[in-house]
Amino acid sequence: MVGATTLQPGQSTTLELPLFMGMHTGMGSLHVFAVDVRSNDPVEPVKTLRWRFTAGGR
C-alpha cells in the first residue's frame, strides 16, 4: 500500500498492487483481478476493486 491507510469520507489514496505473473503461451487474453477493501462504513463495509486488463502473449 502506498499513501494513507486511514481515510475520511471523500478522501482518496494510492494503492499499489504489483503483479508478478509468469506468462506462458496462451495467456495473452483478458484477465480480471479482484481485491476486497474493508471499512467501517455501515452501508457498504466491503468494496470490491477489480482490475481488467489484456496481457500480451508470448
Task: Summarize, please.
The chain has 58 residues and is mostly beta strands. The chain is built from no helices and two strands. A hairpin with a 7-residue loop joins strand 1 (30-38) and strand 2 (46-54).
Percent of residues in helices comes to under 10%
Q: Topology as H/E string?
A: EE
Tell me the overall shape.
elongated
Biggest pleated sheet: 2 strands, antiparallel
Q: Strands of the largest sheet, in order across it?
A: 1-2
Give the helix tally: 0
The rounded distance between the terminal residues' Cα atoms is 30 Å
Tell me the fraction of residues in β-strands, as a range: 25-35%
Contiguous low-pLDDT stretches (5 residues minimum) are none
Walk me through this protein's architecture:
The chain is an all-beta fold. The chain has strands at 30-38, 46-54.
Based on the model shown, name its key terms.
58 residues, mainly beta, two-stranded antiparallel sheet, 2 strands, 31% strand
